[in-house]
Input
Amino acid sequence: MNAAQFEVPTFDYNEVLDPTSEANLRCIKALLYHGGAMIEGCEDAGEEALHRLADGAFGGLQKDPTRDIANWKIVKKEGATSVSYDHLKRLNQHTDSSIPPHGLPALALLMHYAEGSGTNTFTDGFAVARQLKLEDPEGYALLAKYGYDAERDFVASRVDSPQLYNRGLIVSTQQPLLQLDDTGALTRVQYNEVFRTPLTLPFDVFPKWYAAFDRFVELLHSPEYEKKVPMQKGKFFLMNNWRVLHGRAGGVASSDRVLVGGTITRESIYSQARRLLRERRSGGYADVSQEEELSIRRNARGAEVKVFA
Ligand SMILES: [Fe+2]
Output
């Protein structure tokens, strides 16, 4: 199945908003199994609706240390120097928190159209990594072994933002684009070209690493793997930011487009899912023994889907 054939699981805003509902649990399952979910039916689109959903249904947004409020806001700006705020330009596929202000990228990204319309692009990074591994196993291994150099000035990179920033933060990283666990399984993709800086790879590694990197980026933006999703006022897209890369199609956003969103930690998402699963166990929450707790943890380690077994 190519990306165009994939139907994004879709949920109702008011149903997901209830943190005790089946819809809420199914939405989180869709996030973790399929990589993303659409949430529709919000009638009062805007920052308040974003917070209502994030706080009520998913454990709350992660606050960026450089501003007072947790969500970001993207509004069209004439003469923007940052591609994020130039709404008609193509924005290439990336993960958010690629340079994490807290040390670890957030697991989930929630974006919401507060006004206007546009088209977002999504790519399953795990599917692309699988393809690269088939074509070039050595290159895949190099992308997983050697980090790429990157740096973000959290204030300068948001010079076009309508939001206020209360302090500076400049972070440098050298994380691998593909991150594997101890068994060799891919657990996270972490990449944003906007913040990449000159590479400091060993001289003999560079040609093979760069060839694999070039192919990975090409696949990310190929019609086979990139899915275009029309978005408009009221819609939300919740995605697994460790797996799905996102961007914006060029030339289609309305001039009144206002996009708001934020990130959610792995702990918040898993806490909500596990609470709902425990409530649905025979005997309820109190039935979980300490031995079972450890067993659940062992089974879940390294295999996200086993949480739901
Ligand atoms: Fe982004």
